[in-house]
Every structure is written in C-alpha cells, then in structure tokens.
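>> received
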Amino acid sequence: MFFCYILSSLHITQAIFLFFAGGIAGTLNALAGGGSFIAFPALLFMRIPAVEANATNTVALWPGLAASTIAYLKRLNAPWRVLVPLLATSVAGGWAGAWLLLKTPQHTFLRLVPWLLLGGTLLFAFGNSIRAIAGKTAVLDDLRDISFQAIVVSSIAELLVAVYGGYFGAGIGFITLGMLALLGMRDIHAMGAIRTLLAAAINAAAVVTFIVARAVLWPQCAVMITGSLAGGWFGAHYAQKADPRKVRGVVIGVGVAMSAYFFVTVR
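>> returned
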C-alpha cells in the first residue's frame, strides 16, 4: 500500500533519480561526510521548497548514518567520559538547530555555510600542524588521555556544530573531523567512528523535530531512505578497508569542492 502511494506521488524517473541521489549521499556520509551536498540540491532540483527539502533530506539520510554507525562500532574506542558530554550536546544542539530552521528563513544562515565548511576542512587538513606549532605534539588516537578542560571545550564546540547541523547540516562531519584533528587524533577510522556517531545523534534530534512539525515530504523521503541505507552500509565497510591516506585525501578533496560550490551558489 505504501509503495503504491509513493509510485502515485512520484514519476518513476523521479524515484530513480532520488534513489541514486540518496545512495551517493549515504556513501559520501560514510566515507567522508557531505552527503547533503548531493541530496539537498537533488530535492531542490525537483522544485521542492528549501525548508521542506532540508527537512526531508535530514530524515532521508539519517537511516544511512545509523547504518554507518553500526558498521563503525568496532572502531569506537573513546571513553564514556568523552562520549557522554559530546552526545548530550549533539542532541541538544540538533534539536535547537531544527527548531530554528522551522522558525526562521534559511537565506541568512546559508551565507555562513561556505565559511563553516572551509574552516572545518582546513582544521582537518592542518590540525596536527597547528598543534605542533603550539608545542602540543601528543597523539590521542582514542582520546583516553584527553584532559577535562579539553572535554569541556570540545563539548561547547560540538554544541555549536550541532546547532548548525540541525539547521542545515551539510558538512558537519568536516567540522567534527577538524575538531578531532585539532585535539590530536590522527587515526582516520577512529575519527570516522566518532564523527558518524555524533552526526547520527545530531540528526536524530532534528529528525524527531521535523516529523512532529510535519515538515517532511514522505514519498521523496522514503525513496531516498532506501538509497541512503544501501550507500551508508557499504560505504562504511569500504571506508574501513581503504588506505587511511586516500580516505584523508577524499575528505579534504570533497571538503574543498563543497566549500567552492557553496561560495559560488550562495549569494
């Protein structure tokens, strides 16, 4: 019955287009983040209003993030004293950002998007160099040696990232990776596990908010969910088998491309 409803609401070519857009977005989220760079414009291309497109995009990609999180669990070795504050601020910020999206226009906030993406990409690329210049050369592959002060600062930073993530969401993975790199992490897979978990928490809060507000277009969302699940699951497994240096290159390359795209298109 539900599939009949979808087919009656979407042309077959639209359904195929959204399925592949969701699949590519789910794979990108698993590999390096930035799935919204594909999914959100795809919905706008179908002339869906921006707020509804953003809400639908968030709900559609969340199952793929959840699938990626499950696939990354074996890489998640951060202590609870680090994860609990980060998860709490992720949920709180995700809800606040989603609420702001539903209450305010997007255009002003979208002007900040390219700067946020570029900043996160640069932090990820040069975070360890910045620490070396500052005389902090320790490597924290699993965050077990992180100080209480660093946890507080990271939680505040994650709250701001989560507000942005709930409001728009494109590139939150880059900003989180940049924060983790600045803390001294270098293991791309361990960083990917934490990034994916926090992104899933942020978007879970936003998803509930958007569903309650009835801002989701379900026919388009259902098709993209199917694609993002497949892309998220296979992308996460591929990322863990890939050369860390190549994955890092993908992260930086996609980050630069996303930043350039939004600098050109957001006016």
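>> The chain has one domain: 2-265.
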